[in-house]
Write a structure and sequence with these properties.
The protein is mostly beta strands. The protein is built from one helix and 25 strands. The strands form five sheets. The chain has an eight-stranded mixed β-sheet with strand order 19-20-21-22-1-25-24-23, with no helix packed on it. Strands 11-15-16-17-18 form a five-stranded mixed β-sheet, with no helix packed on it. The chain has a four-stranded antiparallel β-sheet with strand order 2-3-4-5, with no helix packed on it. Strand 23 and strand 24 form a beta hairpin.
C-alpha cells in the first residue's frame, strides 16, 4: 500500500485546558482553526486560531443550558462560520474580533419548520466548497450520535442564511442494514464538493460502539433527501466476527477521507489510513519523526493538521504532504 509522508512545518504545545479536536479547518493564509471545549467545563466551546506567531482563543458559546446542541464550525472563503442551535450563524474574518451575526431562516412559518425545533446539532466535522453547508443533527432520540442532516444556504454578502432541507439517510442501499429496527444510519461526517453530497456512516447500532464495536460502516454519495446515489465503501457485517471492529471516517478539505479504527486489535493495528475519493484506494500515513501518536484531523492542498491527545489536547501540528 502506498504511503503519504508528512513533514513537520510547525507545532503548537497547548495549555492543559482543552479536551478534544471536535472539528478543524485550515485557512489559505496558513492559520489553523480548532473547535474544542474546555476540560474543566465541557459546556464551554471555543475556536483556537493557531498562526506562525501565536495562539488566539475565541470564545464561542456556553452550552450549559442546552448541553447537547453543540456549535458547528465550517470554513467559508477567507473566514469561518459558527452555527448555533440551528438558529444563528456567526461569520468571522480578519482578526476575528467582531463576527457578523445572521439569524437562520427555518421555513415559511412557525408551523412549517424545515429543521424540527427539537433537533440538536452535532459538532462533527463538515466541509463544503460552496455556499451550501451540510450539518449533522440528532432528532427524537438523543444518544450523542447524528442520524439526520440538514443543508444550510449561506451568503454573507447578502446577509442571508436559510435551512433548505432536513433528512435522514435511507438504509435500503446497505447490505448489512437491520430491517428489524427503524433506526437510520449514523453519520460521522458530511461533505459537499462539486455540488455533490458525501456521507460517512458508522452503522445503525444503538449500543456503545466503543464497547461492542460497529455493525458496519460505509462511505456513500447521497442526495439532499437522503437517497444513496453511489456507494464507495461498505464493510462486511462486523458483528459476525469474534473481534470488535469499526472505523470512523472524517472528510477533509481535500480528496482524502481520514479513516480511524476504533480498536488497536483489528487488521489496521489501530493506525489511521487515508481514502481517496477520486482514485478510490487506501493510503498509509507516514507521520514525522517523534509524532507517531499524532492523529490526522484535516487536509487542505498539500497541508495537513494533526493533533496529539493524552487525557486532553496536548499538541496541534501543521505538516506538509510530500
Amino acid at each position: 500500500m502506498e504511503k503519504i509522508k508528512l513533514s513537520l512545518l510547525q507545532k503548537w504545545k497547548l495549555p492543559e485546558q482543552y479536551s478534544f479536536v471536535h472539528s478543524s479547518a485550515l485557512l489559505s493564509d496558513g492559520r489553523v482553526l480548532i473547535l474544542t471545549s474546555e476540560t474543566d467545563d465541557s459546556d464551554k466551546y471555543c475556536v483556537l486560531v493557531l498562526s506562525s506567531s501565536d495562539i488566539k482563543k475565541i470564545e464561542i458559546c456556553n452550552c450549559s443550558e442546552d448541553r447537547r446542541n453543540y456549535p458547528v464550525l465550517f470554513r467559508f472563503e477567507e473566514g469561518f462560520g459558527i452555527i448555533k442551535k440551528g438558529q444563528q450563524c456567526e461569520y468571522y474574518t480578519g482578526d476575528f474580533s467582531s463576527p457578523e451575526r445572521l439569524s437562520i431562516k427555518n421555513g415559511h412559518s412557525v408551523l412549517q419548520n424545515i429543521v424540527p425545533k427539537k433537533a440538536q446539532q452535532r459538532y462533527f466535522q463538515v466541509t463544503s466548497d460552496s455556499s451550501l453547508i451540510p450539518v449533522c443533527f440528532e432528532n427524537n432520540v438523543y444518544y450523542g450520535d447524528a442520524r439526520c442532516f440538514a443543508l444550510l444556504e449561506f451568503d454573507i454578502t447578502k446577509k442571508y442564511a436559510e435551512w433548505k432541507s432536513f433528512s435522514n439517510i435511507d438504509k435500503k442501499a446497505f447490505t448489512h442494514r437491520d430491517d428489524r429496527r427503524d433506526e437510520t444510519p449514523k453519520i460521522d461526517s458530511l461533505k459537499i464538493a462539486n455540488r455533490e453530497i458525501y456521507a460517512f456512516l458508522s452503522g445503525e447500532s444503538t449500543t456503545s460502539v466503543n464497547k461492542w464495536g460497529m455493525d458496519y460502516y460505509a462511505l456513500a454519495k447521497i442526495s439532499a433527501d437522503g437517497t444513496v446515489v453511489e456507494k464507495f465503501l461498505e464493510s462486511d457485517n462486523l458483528k459476525q466476527s469474534s473481534k470488535k471492529g469499526g472505523v470512523n471516517g472524517v472528510f477533509t478539505d481535500s480528496d482524502y477521507v481520514v479513516m480511524t479504527p476504533l480498536f488497536k486489535t483489528d487488521e489496521w493495528k489501530g493506525k489511521q489510513k487515508l481514502f481517496s475519493l477520486t482514485v478510490r484506494k487506501y493510503f498509509d500515513i507516514g507521520l514525522p519523526r517523534g509524532m507517531s501518536k499524532h492523529k490526522v484531523q484535516n487536509i487542505s492542498g498539500d497541508s495537513c493538521i494533526t493533533s496529539l491527545y493524552n487525557r486532553g489536547l496536548k499538541e496541534v501540528a501543521l505538516c506538509k504532504i510530500g
